[in-house]
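Tokens as discussed.
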């Protein structure tokens, strides 16, 4: 029971790594199964049978998170299945004694490749364009063959090749490779079933790995967005190198001082790879921060440039009604003044018109007489004596 629990944890950890990196589920699981003494063919067969369930769950999770490019999946899965079937048939026909160093050598090489790959900056440029079928087909064929014969290798071969091409986002590379692996694992399982029969599958081991992988698959699809692949890849590569170096050293029958010296050398290389990975990660983050700052500044400058004419237009628009109001007020004032002047002119004209008859009457009276209101006249000498009243 304790062994099955450990295997379930192994499956969980392997799926977390695989879902975050797009590789290393088979490498990690097969390596640990070889360490506990499982035959190479049985280890690869059990891992691939478990991967049918884990890759299906991982594919669904990646699809829901939008991490899958179905064009890439369709062009890499079928050649990968053919290669995996051929590799499983070949490994089934090799004796355990001969297969152990072969499989350990493949795993060691792939682990060393992970160390070198993730100790350098990951390329993020040239995103876009289309991956051609003449590139994806051979890649799937080789990756599937290596995966079946080595107990793992689909991700370590396919994922870096797609990342280096720069034609696909890293998260879509990982999601597409994980999704296509469902078909590859199924083909490899069929090949092992034909070559080894049902006794070649360790069903309790398969069940434990499957449970752990199913638990981790949805979480891994989410972690791919936040986990730094640089550090995780270098760490997993070191573990694979050290564990498979043990099998290779035994096969080469290296004893005495060579064994600890070789282990120390490998450990030093692993530590150096981790240091380089940390430095590359920091440089990448600093570059990304500078780029984001420059983009923000450019956006703000562009916004300010676009806003200046808008503000001028708004000011002119606001000023126009004020100018119109002032013009209307001036016009109204002029109109009022003109109206008042016309009214005053009419009043003067009316006054003059009324006074004109009296002025004319005075003007027409003979000399020496004063005009009276009733139209009569009196001598000038009698005016003001009251005689006019007596009359």
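Sequence:
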């Amino acid at each position: 029971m304790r062994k099955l629990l450990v295997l379930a944890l192994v499956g969980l950890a392997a799926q977390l790594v695989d879902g975050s990196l797009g590789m290393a589920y088979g490498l990690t699981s097969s390596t640990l199964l070889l360490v506990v003494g499982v035959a190479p063919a049985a280890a690869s067969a059990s891992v691939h049978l478990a991967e049918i369930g884990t890759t299906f769950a991982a594919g669904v999770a990646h699809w829901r998170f939008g991490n899958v490019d179905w064009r890439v999946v369709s062009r890499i899965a079928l050649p990968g299945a053919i290669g995996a079937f051929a590799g499983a048939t070949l490994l089934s026909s090799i004796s355990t004694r001969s297969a152990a160093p072969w499989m350990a050598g493949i795993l060691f090489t792939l682990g060393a490749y992970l160390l070198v790959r993730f100790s350098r900056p990951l390329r993020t440029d040239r995103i876009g364009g289309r991956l051609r079928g003449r590139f994806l087909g051979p890649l799937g064929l080789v990756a599937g063959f290596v995966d079946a014969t080595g107990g793992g290798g689909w991700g370590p071969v396919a994922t870096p090749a797609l990342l280096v091409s720069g034609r696909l986002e890293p998260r879509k590379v990982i999601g597409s490779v994980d999704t296509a692996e469902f078909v590859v694992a199924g083909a490899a399982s069929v090949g092992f079933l034909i070559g080894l029969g049902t006794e070649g599958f360790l069903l309790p081991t398969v069940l434990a790995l499957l449970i752990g992988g199913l638990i981790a698959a949805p979480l891994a699809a989410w972690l791919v967005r936040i986990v730094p692949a640089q550090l995780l890849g270098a760490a997993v590569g070191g573990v694979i190198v050290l564990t498979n170096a043990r099998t290779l050293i035994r096969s080469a029958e290296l004893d005495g001082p060579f064994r600890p010296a070789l282990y120390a050398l490998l450990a030093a290389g692993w530590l150096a790879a981790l240091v380089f990975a940390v430095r590359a990660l920091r440089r990448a983050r600093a570059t990304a921060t500078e780029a984001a700052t420059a983009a923000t500044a450019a956006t703000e400058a562009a916004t300010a440039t676009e806003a200046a004419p808008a503000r001028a237009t708004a000011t002119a628009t606001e000023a126009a009604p004020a100018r119109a109001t002032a013009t209307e007020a001036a016009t109204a004032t002029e109109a009022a003044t003109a109206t008042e002047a016309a009214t005053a002119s009419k009043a003067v004209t009316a006054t003059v018109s009324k006074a004109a008859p009296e002025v004319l009457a005075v003007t027409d009276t003979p000399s020496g007489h004063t005009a009276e209101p009733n139209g009569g006249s009196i001598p000038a000498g009698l005016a003001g004596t009251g005689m006019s009243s007596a009359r």
